Amino acid sequence: MSFILKRNVSRPIFFLFILFSSTFVIPLLPLQDPLNIALDERLLPPSSEHPFGTDELGRDVLSRTVSGFATTVKVSIFALLSSLAIGIPLGGLAGYFYKTWVDGIFNWTVSFIFSLPFLLIMASIMSIMKPGIFKVYLILTFIMWVNPARIVRAEVIRTKNLDYVVATRAFGASEAYTLAYAILPCCIESAFIFSVSYLPEIIGLEAGLSFLGLGVQPPYPGLGKMIFDGLSYIYSAWWLSFFPAMILFVLVLVVNGFNFLYKKG
Questions:
Q1: CA 49 to chain centre
Q2: How confident is the model at residue 1, as a pLDDT?
Q3: Spatial distance between the Cα atoms of 261 and 199, rounded to a whole number of angstroms
Q4: If residue 225 lies in a helix (H) or strand (E), which one and from where to where?
Q5: Which residues contact residue 219 at a Cβ distance below 8 angstroms, ignoring those fewer than 6 apart?
Q6: For the chain, which ranges sit under pLDDT 70?
Q7: Distance between CA 158 and CA 152 in Å, rounded?
Q8: Which of 198, 259, 247 is nearest to 70 (CA)?
Q9: Is the separation of the CB atoms in 225 and 215 below 8 Å?
Q10: Backbone angles phi, psi at 54, to 5 degrees
Q11: CB 215 within 8 A of CB 131
Q12: Which of 96, 170, 233, 247 is geometrically suited to a Cys-Cys bond with 237, CB 3.0 to 4.6 A?
């Protein structure tokens, strides 16, 4: 679609591409195996051999932190794109059929989702089911699709009575064609840019679920889980929580910094 070529949306796409591509560069780095256990090297402080130290099982914290970073980025970006894939058509339908039963159901659903205490409800659901990273992705998608949907709904309401849309209908175009080809392409740009600004929130929710033990499961590393596990050694091995928390902080800071500079420029 032509909206992808527009300058004001190409930069967020490029940023997400760079961020996502970094997760495929990580396996090529000369790091130690994040799953390798060496009990004779347990709880070693940061050194030249282990820049981030080792954990209670002697695993290299640097390689585990980097692997957890890759997991967080992949899950967050996939959840962002999936929320767009769901939110854009649903928001388009609600906006096109404004003040009908379709719009009524949409507004009720959005209000219901916004009223949920996310982490509490999702933690309760995940405690009943078997935890896993795919279920975290589904939960994040379920939570976040309402954001682009609301933007698209508002844009469709504003656009659907413009002259070029009326002309499209006058030439005999069906309702589905008018919505899909005359209206939605003009709304996708706003939804995409708005959704990228929610990426830090998605990252935080993923880390929060991982912190509660509901994300990626041992022995595979997750930033939130590493922070939680390190709290047991916070006085004797501070590096177990510090470095994963630092990487998570830098990741959110970089994404927020991009959003801030993008809005200014």
A1: 33
A2: 40
A3: 15
A4: helix 223-230
A5: 35
A6: 1-8, 119, 122-123, 125-127, 265
A7: 10
A8: 247
A9: yes
A10: -125, 160
A11: yes
A12: 233
